[in-house]
Every structure is written in structure tokens, then in C-alpha cells.
Amino acid sequence: MPIQHDSFRRPDLLRLPYDDYRAMPAIANSDLSRLRDALNGRYQKPSSMSGALGLGTAFHTALLEPELYEAGQPGINDSLVWWMVEGVKLNPTLNELLENGVPEPSCIFTEPTTNTVCKLRADLVTPETDRGYTIIDFKTTMARDYNHFLAQCSGYDYDRQAAFYLDALGADRFLLVGVQKVEPFSLYTVEVPTHMLQEGRAKYLRLLQLLQPEAELPGYLTDAVRDVRNGLMGVND
Questions:
Q1: Domain of 68: which CATH number?
Q2: Each residue of 126-152: pLDDT tens digit?
Q3: Are 202 and 184 in contact (CB under 8 A)?
């Protein structure tokens, strides 16, 4: 269950262009991933966004904002994208969520434990279902089967994203939908369980704690960690 506080008020869902969302001065789950990568010695400074559109981005656009989809982008197999979209829509449960949900909503909120201003942009939010307020996130995957995808949920920190979003919106459940991007284009739907949410919550709180002004970074941490932290905190060297 999400962390609830006496002062909790579910933040409003906003319909914003992606560029406007990215410009909002708040911490996103993707920012926490940058900090995690720096802590794990995997961080590389962001390069130019030019180049071929990613399959995952193309799929999300086709599924959630089809009016914005541009066919013929370099490196993208349009037929594959639409096969994957059709596979999702052929699932009665997922199709009902798509028909009744709000695609690509954004929100800004204050995380109460660390008092950090944060933001999120969900794939799909369906406030009124027979299972309550539901958040759905679609992941393209090469997972071989359901158990393989389930293992990826923790390894790729999808559990952190689920807890971050669910706590912010006071949602009742978070669904991760793995969409296989090779034949047989299987779907793997995971309702993120309590133990995974607890692990994910611990992950995001640990990272947010490192962004607090009073937090002292241990001397052994690399300059990359300090650079990312300072960048997210708006501190100039």
C-alpha cells in the first residue's frame, strides 16, 4: 500500500507536451536513474538526442498517442510497432484500460518524507476500475517468458518506478506490462506486489536522501556522483 500522510492530497493530472514536462524544475524517476548509474559507476554524460528514434518510444507513441505517430522514421520498423500495439489491444483487460484511461498524464508533487519537489509522467492512469485507481506502464522487452520479465522488474528498477508513482498518486495498484518485441510478441502483465513496492520505495528514498542539501557524500564517491547530484540540485561548480 502507498505511504499515506494526514496532509496527503492526490496531485492533479496535467496534460502537458513532453518538452514542457521535462522543463519542470522537479526530480523525475529518470533523474534518480542517472544518480543510480553514477553511484554504480555506469554514468555517462548525456549525449545528443539526435539519431534514430528508439523502438520503445515509437511503440509508446503509437499505443498512447497515435495521432502523434510519424511513420518512416530511420531505424524503425513501422509494421513491427503496429503489430505490438495490436497485440496489446487484443487483450480485453488492457484494451478496456486503454479506452477508459488518461494517456501520458504528468503531475508535480512534494515527496513528503524528504520534502523534495518531484514530478512524474505516467504511461496510463485509469482512476476508476473495479480494482481501484490503477497506473499502467508498458515496457518493451526481450524477456523469454513471464518469470524472466518478473526478474527484470527488480533488476531494471521498475519496482522503484512503481513505488514512486503509486505513492505520489495514492493509487491502489501498479501494473507493469511487458510487450515482447520479437515473435511471438507475448504480453507479461505484473501487478506489482507489496514486497516489490517496499523494495522500490527504499530505493527511491535512498536516492532522494542523497539530494538533500544537508546530505554529506562519502569521500569515496566519484566526481560523477557529485556532478549528477549538483546538477539535479541546481548547484553550479
A1: 3.90.320.10
A2: 998 999 999 999 999 999 999 999 999
A3: no
Tens digits of residue pLDDT in 150-179: 999 999 999 999 999 999 999 999 999 999
The cell for 66 is 497515435
Provide φ and ψ at 154, rounded to 5°: -85, -40
Name the percent of the chain lying above pLDDT 70: 91
Q: b or e along 35-65 (b: 16 or more beta carbons within 10 Å of the residue's beta carbon)?
A: bbebbeeebeeeeeeeeeeebeebbbbbbbe
CB 1 within 8 A of CB 194: yes
Q: What three-state secondary structure class fits 161?
A: helix
Residue 6 belongs to a domain? no
Is 11 inside a domain boundary? no
**Structural domain containing residue 204:** 18-40+53-233
Q: Is residue 227 part of a domain?
A: yes
- Does a structural domain hold residue 8? no
